[in-house]
Design brief:
The protein is an alpha/beta fold. About 35% of the residues lie in helices and about 15% in strands. The structure holds NADPH dihydro-nicotinamide-adenine-dinucleotide phosphate (NDP) and guanosine-5'-diphosphate-rhamnose. This is GDP-mannose 4,6-dehydratase.
Length: about 375
């Protein structure tokens, strides 16, 4: 039985990858951080009682800032594959916490690679690094492929640039099977609530049900290549099954704006939106109601405004990936379109919003987390 160790197992990708590997028959180990409240919502459904013999899913307390702890976990688990998905993954937050972001997103990767080397696992343990399209930042070529030069635009991207190169360096210097997936944006109903897609689907579902008044957004002209996390974790695994380690772009090859994503989400809720103004003044108003999912709204209501607080000190305006190499060498093609994914996200958030609206109607306190960052 193969053993995998996943950092970031409590995150979006970690949870899908853990499910995927368990289905493939792996024993799956995950590193989770100590938190003052439960932080395992995304993996609770695959949790196995460690007291039961033969459990194939195991969690270890750890942190990417703690080298001795990472070394001990790797020594104990003796993994065939390590997936380094753990990160302070929010670009806007990295401007507020640049040093911490560097410690986790850059040094964390080095700590894992050094632990593998220190333990003499260079020839045993394969290593996947979650690299990012943010490396391209101020883009030098469109679409972006494996050979496109990098120009990172945030402390997050600069930290991830270090990790990209240290993975390449350990491959070249020590013959390790280490590779980078240059992942373009990928989303799902499990996406963190402060990334733009989830902020939109959750926010609009809440507004439609009368739980919030308005969505406050940053740069809605930003263009992204959005895929589904399920497709991307499958590719992460495929990359570690080759004879030779290589880096791959993982993307859909289709590009849309944040404004498009807002319109699609609204349409899923049975609302047609009209955008008025531009730049910092733009608003989105309800132009027509075509379905019954938005009882709290009427034509003319403003559901989105721009708040310059969400503009970033340096923005990545446009990203579009070319994953032909992944298609040719690995036979990988994404199964989900961005629109399908958006529909799935809206439908998940609508179920939650309806439940909360029902509680509110009965005068019960809402279990709604208010998160202003991002
Ligand atoms: P999430 O933000 O959903 O998950 C991040 C994970 O990292 C969480 O499990 C988090 O734990 C954990 N983590 C954060 N800080 C530490 C730390 N100091 N030590 C150990 N673990 C830590 O990210 P995604 O699942 O979306 O992304 C997975 C990886 O892929 C990340 O590295 C991200 O940067 C990268 N990536 C993601 C893309 C995307 O579009 N989703 C695109 C390109 C790259 P906790 O739950 O306790 O916070
Ligand atoms: P990104 O994702 O920065 O690309 O990083 P995010 O969803 O945060 O932003 C995408 C684009 O939308 C614009 N935007 C807003 N973003 C947020 N979060 N909130 C807003 O209100 C808002 N309004 C407009 C942003 O400016 C940006 O242009 C994600 C993360 O998952 C990284 O970890 C990963 O490496 C990259 O994708 C690829």
């Amino acid at each position: 039985m193969k053993r995998a160790l996943i950092t970031g197992i409590t995150g979006q990708d970690g949870s899908y990858l853990a499910e995927f590997l368990l289905e493939k028959g792996y024993e799956v180990h995950g590193v989770k951080r100590r938190a003052s409240s439960f932080n395992t919502q995304r993996i609770d459904h695959i949790y196995e009682d460690p007291h039961i013999n033969g459990a194939r899913f195991k969690l270890h307390y750890g942190d990417l800032t703690d080298a001795s702890n990472l070394t001990r976990i790797i020594a104990e688990v003796e993994p065939d594959e390590i997936y380094n998905l753990g990160a302070q993954s929010h670009v806007a937050v990295s401007f507020d916490s640049p040093e911490y972001t560097a410690d986790v997103d850059a040094m964390g990767t080095l700590r894992l690679l050094e632990a593998i080397r220190f333990l003499g696992f260079e020839k045993k343990t394969r290593f996947f690094q979650a690299s990012t399209s943010e490396l391209y930042g101020l883009v030098q070529e469109t679409p972006q492929r494996e050979t496109t030069p990098f120009h990172p635009r945030s402390p997050y991207a600069v930290a991830k640039l270090y990790s990209y190169w240290i993975a390449v360096n350990y491959r070249e210097a020590y013959g390790m099977y280490a590779c980078n997936g240059i992942l373009f944006n990928h989303e799902s109903p499990r996406r963190g609530e402060t990334f733009v897609t989830r902020k939109i689907t959750r926010g609009l579902a809440n507004i439609a049900q009368g739980l919030e008044d308005c969505l406050y957004m940053g740069n809605i002209d930003a263009l992204r290549d959005w895929g589904h996390a399920k497709d991307y974790v499958r590719m992460q695994w495929m990359m570690l099954q080759q004879d030779e380690p290589e880096d791959f772009v993982i993307a859909t090859g289709k590009q849309y704006s944040v404004r498009d994503f807002i319109s699609w989400s609204a349409r899923e809720l049975g609302i047609e939106l009209e955008f008025n103004g531009d730049g910092t003044d733009e608003i989105a108003q309800v132009a027509a109601i075509t379905g019954g999912n938005a009882p709290a709204l009427k034509v003319g209501d403003v559901v989105m405004r721009i708040d310059p607080r969400y503009f970033r000190p340096a923005e990545v305006e446009t990203l579009l990936g070319d994953s032909s190499k992944a298609k040719e060498k690995l036979g990988w093609v994404p199964e989900f379109t961005a629109q399908q994914m958006c529909a799935e996200m809206v439908s998940g958030d609508l179920v939650t919003a309806r439940r909360h609206a029902l509680l509110k109607a009965h005068g019960l306190e809402l279990p709604v987390a208010v998160e202003d960052q991002g």
